[in-house]
Amino acid sequence: MTDAAIRPAGTGAAPVPAPVHPLDPVTAEEYRAGRDILARAGLLTGQVRFAYYGLEEPPKAEVLAFAPAAGSGSCGAADGGANGAADGGGVGGGPVGAPPDRRLRAFLVNVVTGESTDAILSLRSQKVLSARTLDPRRDGHLPILDQDFALCEEIVHADEGWRAAMARRGLTDVSKIRACPLTAGHYDDPGEDGRRMVRVLAFVQNGKSDLPWAHPVDGVAAYVDLIERKVFRVIDALDLAVPQESGDYDDPAVRGPLRTGLRPIEITQPDGPSFTLDGQTLGWQGWSMRIGFDAREGLSLHQISLDGRPVVYRASIPEMVVPYGDPSPTRHWQNYFDTGEYLVGKWVNSLERGCDCLGEIAYLPATITDGDGEPREVGNAICIHEEDFGMLWKHTDIFTGSVQARRQRRLVVSFFTTVGNYDYGFYWYFYLDGTIECEIKLTGVVFTSAYPGPGYPYAAEVAPGLGAPVHQHLFSARLDMMVDGLANAVEEVDIVPGPAGPGNPQGNALLQRVTRLVSESQAARDVAPERARTWRVVSTEKTNRFGQATAFTLWPEAAPTLLASPGSTLYDRARFATHHLWVTRYDPAHRYPAGDYVNQHPGGAGLPQYTAGDASLDGEDVVLWHTFGPAHFPRPEDWPVMPVSRCGFTLKPTGFFSRNPTLDVPPPGCH
Ligand SMILES: [Cu+2]
After folding, report:
1. How far does Cα 11 stand from its chain's mean position?
2. What is residue 415's three-state secondary structure?
3. Which of 13, 34, 110, 185 has its CA 20 to 30 A from that of 214?
């Protein structure tokens, strides 16, 4: 990314230069120009803060008209002969149409009046195109602001009722108490209607390096109005001792001496990596894609193609929710939508070579903005590298004596974010055999409580008197598919026993049962590991040499969907997580599975609304929404910092090629 000259804010009205590609990340100059446009429209008067600021991507048709999907085929071997689809031509080439308008979206919160506005502006026409004022009772609220963290601590520290609750526990030095602003959810409790609020739990920090999560002050919660800047309710329900054991994993007295015997592992690529990175365009072994980054979603991948053939138009993880399962009176409301309420991209880590990432690394920065809409570049935000991944294929033939083996590799595109106590790594892998994998790495510190005593079913004891409540992590992947073009359909594929009878006398018959999911209501589906259930996205236009539709198959993991009770407000707010699969017909407005405004939303937004029209899906431009992630009953080994736990899914070519596409991979040592 180049540093363009930045105009002083508030001057001039000439449009800033647009980036080369309509999906390129917003530049610092564009963010500032957009802020000027909002200011001129009177939307930044008074104490207005940006809760979100990012690119309003052009609709797919406009992007494809300007810059058709799929790569130029400049990287990797061209598809050859029997490997390829019989007629699976790509759509390549450079810009062909007029560039779409460059638009930005800003979520604005007036922190004095509480008024919340969703504004879209055009950098080309220098105008605000729309500015919608939210009705908090119907729409919920905009995400948590950066300033809310410090503000909440100030507010609770100054509140007499909260101080009294702390004093009853012998905690009179409030400077040692950390306040954690937790999103409130939506409950019909008196006094909460329409308020922009958070619920605050407290943790003791005995000195700068002391890990506060080790010392929860459980049994007390402060409900804070962020606009009135006051505590409006203190729940002081349970008398539970504050756990005392240190969780400071940096402290040698806690950690113990460092182990020895680990000799260096060096990753070397003497001729450099095999990928190419040109601006935001990444190419490797036939793969081509564009890299995007957004303060809300984090990493997004665009126009993913293989051997010049489109596969996925856009892939991202646009929501996740972490519902906690402890019904305690001061924590029953704990369920965080880390993406829609806190914005996972905003908390992106700056990665360190040799520490976070090994080998020949290419980094891309991410430009995000603060509460004033002022851009800030985070260096080393997106990590791109190549990894050896063990065996690709191998065979020793008993008849021919042929002994062959090939090494698998993958291209890795990733970022890490820290949202409160947890850290999440979002990894996308691209393999030599056409497989795409998404893996989330979950680490950091589990959320803690006071452990009430033996037999307590809703938490694990992870240190003396310290509990870690059971919870789920439910991610939603949005996979805007484009398998060999826009005309796609989705099929559910089960492996089932064949019917007993004359054709199956010994009962060994197995067969594939394929069900075309022809409408949105039919396509809300769940995993069935006992049937090896997968979902495949087929082209309704292209076929392989067997005359079968070219396809990519989604391989899910087996984990439960949302376990909260139907009828609960969480169930309504996280409806996307009640199924493993949803399929929608592409609509540029359908981007977030729990809706555009998640914070304190009453429920029913997102996928339930998107699918209410029950659009037909056969031969259409389809989007898969896949829910995945673990149910986590913490282990003692997860404390005080949790070894990485993984979850994810895989997309595999299925008849996309007409045979193993990696026969041309050279044997080891023969590159
Ligand atoms: Cu967890």
Report:
1. 37
2. strand
3. 185
State whether residue 132 is helix, strand or coil: strand
Alpha carbon separation from 31 to 7, 373, 376, 440 (Å, rounded)? 11, 7, 10, 30
Q: Where are the alpha helices (DSSP H) in 310-406?
A: none
Helical H segments across 92-146, by residue range? 136-139
Q: Which amino acid is at 3?
A: D
Which residues are the active-site residues? Answer: 338, 422
Query: Rounded to 5, what percent of the chain is helix, strand, coil?
Result: 15, 40, 50
Q: 136: which 2 tokens?
A: 């908090």
Q: What is the pLDDT of residues 305-318, one digit of tens each?
A: 999 999 999 999 99
CA of 530 to the centre of ligand 1 (A): 26
Quote the radius of gyration of the chain (alpha carbons, Å).
Answer: 26
pLDDT in tens, 450-459: 999 999 999 9
Question: Which DSSP letter does residue 663 get?
Answer: T
Q: Report the alpha-carbon angle 237-641-211, nearest 5.
A: 55
Q: Please give the structure tokens belonging to residue 191.
A: 């006094």
Q: 646 near 441, Cβ under 8 Å?
A: yes
One-letter amino acid of 108: L
Q: How far is the CA of 444 from the centre of ligand 1 (A)?
A: 9
pTM: 0.94
Q: Which residues are bridge partners to 377 per DSSP?
A: 367
Report d(CA 9, CA 12) in Å as an integer. Answer: 9
Contact 600, 183 (CB under 8 A): yes
- The Å distance, Cα 35 to ligand 1 centre, comes to 38
* Torsion angle of the four alpha carbons 544, 545, 547, 548, in this order, in degrees rounded to the nearest 10: -40
User: What spacing in Å lies between the alpha carbon of 420 and ligand 1's midpoint?
Assistant: 13
| pLDDT, tens only, 206-257 | 999 999 999 999 999 999 999 999 999 999 998 899 999 999 999 999 999 9
Nearest Cα to Cα of residue 447 among 429, 431, 460, 430: 460
Closest to 484 measured CA to CA, from 284, 307, 302? 307
Distance 199 CA to ligand 1 centre (A): 20
Q: How far apart are CA 651 and CA 537, in angstroms?
A: 10
What is the token pair recorded at 198? 């958070």
C-alpha span between 18 and 143 (Å, rounded)? 28
Distance CA 320, CA 325 (A): 16
The C-alpha atoms of residue 459 and residue 465 are separated, in whole angstroms, by 11
Cis peptide before 136 (omega within 30 of 0): no
Q: What distance in angstroms lies between residue 471's CA and the mean position of ligand 1's atoms?
A: 6
In this predicted structure, what is the pLDDT of residue 506?
A: 96
CA–centroid distance, 145 to ligand 1, in Å, is 24
Residues with CB under 5 A from ligand 1 (ion): 632
